[in-house]
Every structure is written in structure tokens, then in C-alpha cells.
Amino acid sequence: MQVFKTLFTYLVLVTFLTGCNKKVYNGKEYRVYTIKKHYSNHGIKKIGNNLSGSALFDSSAIYDLNGYDQINKLIGIGSSKHHENSIRIGWRCINEQIELFAYSYYKGVKTESYMCTVEVNTNIDFNISMNNGMSIDLTTSNGSYNWNSLDTVEDGSRWLLFPYFGGQMEYPNDTGYHRLKIYIALD
Description:
Strands 1, 2, 3, 5, 10, 11, 12 and 14 form an 8-stranded antiparallel β-sheet that branches. A 6-stranded antiparallel β-sheet has the order 4-13-6-7-8-9, with no helix packed on it. It has one helix at residues 2-19, and strands at residues 22-25, 28-36, 39-40, 46-47, 50-57, 72-78, 85-94, 97-106, 109-118, 124-129, 134-140, 143-149, 158-161, 180-186. It is globular. The protein contains 1 helix and 14 strands, in the order H-E-E-E-E-E-E-E-E-E-E-E-E-E-E. Helices cover 10% and strands 50% of the residues. The protein is mostly beta strands.
């Protein structure tokens, strides 16, 4: 009987803990990436040359830039040296809206290109590619947006680049109780 109680307690605990890491929105199950200061909770994942899915920001993404002009990272594809060759969707908060950017490195040179602005709780469908050049396609309630570059990154290991806040500044609202949450559903 003790074994069953222990097993039941373990199953309840695992269900509770994994359930807190998910959010269902418009029929899609999103994984919640919680950012403390700079880094999100994640593991390491090897992927191919294409990445697609959906993303969502809630009100925790609203913050004051405090004079910094930084672009945070939502998700992307990179080599083992992502400051050499990578492509990501970048973002920042301006006037309580989220600006989205194409954010890439090619042979160590960084490029940031504005794509569109969305409000919080707006679904963003994305497709990121490192095939025959680099590209990002976004679809939001405001329309479709595309960015591409003819820069071709040689084949090699590709890694999923997870959400990251910052550069110069840490997430300013990190109190232990209020942390930045980003929601991503991969296809």
C-alpha cells in the first residue's frame, strides 16, 4: 500500500510540475519559457535547417527600456558559435507593444531588421530557415511579413536557440514572483 501512495504522490507532483510549464491558447499547447534575469529555462536541442511554430507574449513582456536600445531574442537557429552564424526572431517592448526583428549573424557580422509590431496576447506564427540563405516569415493578426538574406551558412550542426533577454540590461521586473514568460509552440 505504501508503494501505491508513494507512486500516486509522485504522479501528482509530476503532473503538477509539468502542467505549470504549458499553456493552451487557441487550441495550441505552448511551452512556457520563464526568464530570470537573462536566460530562459531550457535544455539543449539539435535541429535541422528549418524551424516553425507559434509564439505569444503576455503582459510580463511589457517593460521600460531605461535608455537601453537592446533587442531580446525570441527563438532561432544557430551553429555552435551563434555569434558567428545564426538567425533569430528578435523583440523589444516599445510603448507597451512588441516590436519584432530579424536578428542574424553571418560570419560574425550582426544584422537587425525591423519586421512588425504586435500587441501582447497576439499569436505570432513563424518559419525560420537556413536553407539557401537565411529567412524569417511571420504571420500575425496584422498581416504577413518576410525577411531574407542571400547569405548561405555552410552545413553543420544546427541548434535551437531559446528565448533570451538582454544584452546590456537584465529583465527589469524580475522579483522572484514576477518573471518574464514567453510562450512557444513548435510544429
